[in-house]
Amino acid sequence: MSDFINIINHERRLNAALKELSISELKDIQTKLDNVVKKREQEEAELEQERQKKKEKIAELKRTMQEAGIDISDILEEEIGGEVLKKTKQKRAPKPPKYEFTDENGERKTWTGQGRMPKALQKAVDNGRPLQDFLIR
């Protein structure tokens, strides 16, 4: 932060910095500061109005497009090379289990063969059983 902002944000520092000014000078500064605040509030209000108008226009365009049966990808596909855009990413189907084993609690479990090997299966393999023994047929 600049020194000016540090001074203006702390009442003690501000009081010390303005100590030598007269009441009329302080009131003049106050008037100028009030004007700055009013201008900033006006600017913020105008920006908010513009944002609101933009949101309304977007909502209106969406309704119009939906009524016409047009999707955004229909518009953009020509602009970016003529290829059809994917509508949504679909999750891939989970891989089917490849191995079946029994864990320490006696429950039957399965493993797809991807990712970290389950502890119970790892323990069996470490004890000399081949992984092929656990293949689901």
From TrEMBL:
- Gene3D superfamilies of this UniProt entry? H-NS histone-like proteins, Histone-like protein H-NS, C-terminal domain
* Coiled coil regions, renumbered to chain: 26-78
- Does the record's keyword annotation contain Coiled coil? yes
Instruction: Give the main localization category.
Output: cytoplasm
Pfam family example for this protein? Histone_HNS
Lineage top rank: taxon: Bacteria
**Localization:** Cytoplasm, Nucleoid
Q: Where is the DNA-binding protein H-NS-like C-terminal domain?
A: 89-136
Q: Where is the composition biased (Basic and acidic residues)?
A: 97-110
Instruction: Give this protein's Gene Ontology molecular function annotations.
Output: bent DNA binding; DNA-binding transcription repressor activity; minor groove of adenine-thymine-rich DNA binding; protein dimerization activity; structural constituent of chromatin; transcription cis-regulatory region binding
Instruction: Kindly give the PANTHER family that the UniProt entry links to this protein.
Output: DNA-BINDING PROTEIN STPA, PTHR38097
Protein's name according to its UniProt entry: DNA-binding protein
Organism of origin: Idiomarina aquatica
